[in-house]
Amino acid sequence: MAIIKVTRPKLTLLEKLYFPSIVKGMFVTFKHAIRSLRGKSLGADSLNSSGLGVTMQYPEQKWDDHLPEHYRGVPALVTDEQDRERCVSCQLCEFICPPKAITIIPGEIESDDPWAKVEKRPKEFDIDMTRCIYCGMCEEVCPEQAIFLRKDYAMTGLSRADMVNDKERLYEIGGVRTGLVNKWNEIK
């Protein structure tokens, strides 16, 4: 095998000194500062709440209007129009989840229930938001369209326990989703 010796290019005197690069960087920063003070910055019209620059005032202003259509946020469980659980505890979302953030414990449906033909529903359904990577694989694999990624990006908590969404919390943030649900289909 041949060895190729690579020589470094020789630096000029200006390239050896750091001062010209520092001045050039300060010039770019100063130019952007002047443009923002004059209100000519990129996005200054839509985010200009303080009168200067393009700083978003977060609690009052949010990115909700600027989010793209394909944005993936916090996962949530949804119910149908008659407030019935869509989830059948197939556990596909739990198996496909790369960081293993989803935990499902299936439960039986009582035999006196009018929808006893459905095999099971989740007894417990937890999503650990400290592990979730918002990949959307749980939404794609769900056969009953029971789990959706909302356009909510502000998921906070004061402790790790606050960041684990249980079944009740997931249904609370998920709401109602309309459309055909295979679980409640009479023909199935």
From TrEMBL:
Keyword Translocase part of the UniProt annotation: yes
Native source species: Oceaniferula flava
GO molecular function: 4 iron, 4 sulfur cluster binding; iron ion binding; NADH dehydrogenase (quinone) (non-electrogenic) activity; quinone binding
Principal subcellular localization: membrane
UniProt keyword annotation of Secreted present: no
Name assigned to this protein: NADH-quinone oxidoreductase subunit I
Gene coding for it: nuoI
Binding site for [4Fe-4S] cluster 1: 87, 90, 93, 142
Task of the protein: NDH-1 shuttles electrons from NADH, via FMN and iron-sulfur (Fe-S) centers, to quinones in the respiratory chain. The immediate electron acceptor for the enzyme in this species is believed to be ubiquinone. Couples the redox reaction to proton translocation (for every two electrons transferred, four hydrogen ions are translocated across the cytoplasmic membrane), and thus conserves the redox energy in a proton gradient.
Alphabetized UniProt keyword annotations: 4Fe-4S, Cell membrane, Iron, Iron-sulfur, Membrane, Metal-binding, NAD, Quinone, Repeat, Translocase, Ubiquinone
